Every structure is written in C-alpha cells, then in structure tokens.
Amino acid sequence: MDWTGWVVFGLVATTVLTGTMVAAQLTGLSRMDLPLILGLFVTQKPDLARFAGFLIHLVNGQVFALLYAGAFSSIGRAEWWMGAAFGLLHGLLALTVLLPMATAVHPRMSTERSGPDLALLEPPGPLALHYGRETPIVTLLAHVLYGAILGGFLRP
C-alpha cells in the first residue's frame, strides 16, 4: 500500500474537502459549518470548537483516506474517476447516515423532535437541507473532489 501517498494526499484531499465546505459557507451557499459541528462535540466555545473541529476533520479525513487506499489496494488500481465515485458514495453516506445520526449523539445539537431549546446547533434535517438548499450539492461536490484527489494520486 502507498503509505506515503496516504499521509500526504490524505491531508491534501481532506484540506480541499474542508476548504470547499468552508468556502461554501463563507459565500452563502451553505450554512453548514463542519468544523464547528465537529468541534462542539468537545467544547462549547465556538472559536475553540472551530479549531478543534478542523483538527478532528483532518483526523477523520486520514481515516477515510486509509479506507480509500485499502480499497484501491484491494482492487489493484486507482484512478481519479474511481476515487470520485467513492467520494460520491462517501458524500451520500455523510448526508443520509452520518449527519442525521449526529442528533442522537451530539451534546449540543437539537433534534427534530425537541423543538427550540438551548442547543447551539440546529439539526441538519434530511440531506442537511436545514443548512441550505445548496448544502447537499456542495457536500457531494466536496466529497467527489476528495475522492478524485485520492484516486488520482494514490498508488496501490
């Protein structure tokens, strides 16, 4: 397996994914603040949470990059389009399973049933649409870029 590629391109791909999501938020395409969501798992201070969330997302990105590298190694080849397809599946998993499940375990996120409360985060809703109509598109695009980078640069 391409261990050096996993470390280097896992970080590059995760930075691109996170940067795409943050850029979408800053330009008004989405209200989803992924570093904040992740960071609020460990602290309720928003500025510290964004920093912690970025680090958490880098670690998560490396874990997923390891899974991608293992899949490419098992298949015996890696192509940008294969990585993009994996990224699309990864993004769909995030939108349909991971984010909706966050309401069950996130200490600072309200749920669909709880209504307004003192939680710092609103629930993402189906496909994270509570964070904006463009959020699913941006999320999928960011994950496709992530996968394409890994598929294009990893060598099984």
Question: How is this fold's topology laid out?
Answer:
Elements: H1 3-26, H2 34-39, H3 46-75, H4 80-105, H5 135-153
Question: Notable features of this structure?
Answer:
single chain; 156 residues; mainly alpha; 5 helices; elongated
Description of the structure:
With 156 residues, the chain is an all-alpha fold. 67% of the residues lie in helices and 0% in strands. It is built from five helices and no strands. It has helices spanning 3-26, 34-39, 46-75, 80-105, 135-153. Helix 1 (3-26) packs antiparallel against helix 5 (135-153). It is elongated and about 50 Å long. The termini are close together. The mean pLDDT is 91.
Short description:
The protein is mainly α. It has five helices and no strands. The model has no long low-confidence stretch (mean pLDDT 91).
SSE arrangement, N to C: HHHHH
Low-confidence stretches: none
Rg, please? Answer: 16 Å
Strand content: under 5%
Mean pLDDT: 91
Q: What separation lies between the terminal Cα atoms?
A: 5 Å
- Main pleated-sheet profile: none
